[in-house]
Amino acid sequence: MVLHIDAWTKYLIVLCCIGLVAITAIVVVCFINPFCPINRVVNRDVDKLKKSNKKEKKQSFGVAEFGEPVELTKLNAKVQNKYGSPLPSYYAPGFDLKYPPPTTVYGKRFYTNTTTDSCYSSMSPTTEGGSRPTSPVSTVPDDADTSSTNSPPSITESDLSQFYGSLSVMLKYSLLEESNTGQLVINLGDAHNLPGREYFISTCDPFIRVVILKAKTRLRKSRSHYMILSEFQSSTIRRTRHPSFNESFTVELTKTDIKDCALKFLIFDRDKYVNPSQIAEVMCPLMELNLQTAVAGIPLSLELQEPRQNNGELLIGLSYLPTSERLSINVLRAMNLKYEIVTTTVENLNAEVRVLLLANGKLIKKKKTPIVCGSNSPNYDCSLSFDIPLTDLNQIVFIVAVAHRADAVSESDDSLRGKPSRHGSYIGKVFLGSPIQ
Fold first, then answer.
1. Which one of 30, 138, 272, 373 has the minimum C-beta count within 10 Å?
2. Is 4Fe-4S found in the keyword set (predicted)?
3. What pTM value is reported for the model?
């Protein structure tokens, strides 16, 4: 049987095949292309179906296993400290909070056994300029009874002073016969709870420098209006944070000097590797004491404070290569060095940076940069490398110190030749390492 197809039938079959191919192509393109209207409609329905299924599963899961939500914590932000913003205290229902959180005291160094984050500051222990964290909004209603909750105790000034210790002294002033001049006897007693060394916190080698200051004008509260009359230094007490000095110093002062003078006690820690570090200080104005009528003397217990000094800034960079176990310290530049400590003019300043590597309090190696002369903001751009195993990184300490060399020699010393050179005078230093507190 033979079928005869005319021309119009052939055209119709060809047109149907072309239409099927076009429809197939359109459907494929619409499912692939996200801008197609058909694709949008299909995906919208699928997303709605998925969201409804997730919501049903979440509701059924929470009710079946966990039940109703439970309030875990409450917040009481009504407790005020003595020195600043409210101290938030977090407590669970039924829990008595007797001590404040460990982060409620800001800007102080803690010499306790608690673990604190260490930060690398400039060459001076200046206070931080950052702001305190903002206290959260209280969720306790204003009309709620908060008398039953135990709030943290207020932080007193004596609690803050314990981190820098205390010093006991005895002052006695006696007038000479038929004279307007008398003798002021300063007896140094015991010191307690002094701050430990930066890299060896359990001990220090303290000594005291006593400075008698006289006000040039009546503006006694301004440090710039004082001049030094006399200065004394005690002996060094080795390896203790609770030294007993038992030393006396005598200075002659008139009656008018008593009203205009003040005693400043500077406590230092003597370091055999670099210059002594000031760890505390306290100022005692004599005008506030009734020395002329106290025949037996006046005993004083002075609470030491954080030292105030700024010897400049040092810009450095650290990098460690684990494959070769090499640590590099890139000394870039120093800025605003206080050259008055070591020389009279900046033209005579010969500044170099010394890097000392210590382990367990012992000197392992030292290196130094070339000397830059005649500038209190020298540029070094020098890299100093040390071979340190990865397992010893948490045990070593670096002392980076800026020193002045009277005999300017621009050669770098990469070897260990006994103790560091004592011909130079140090301007300032920083400590780097995990053991730093």
1. 272
2. no
3. 0.59
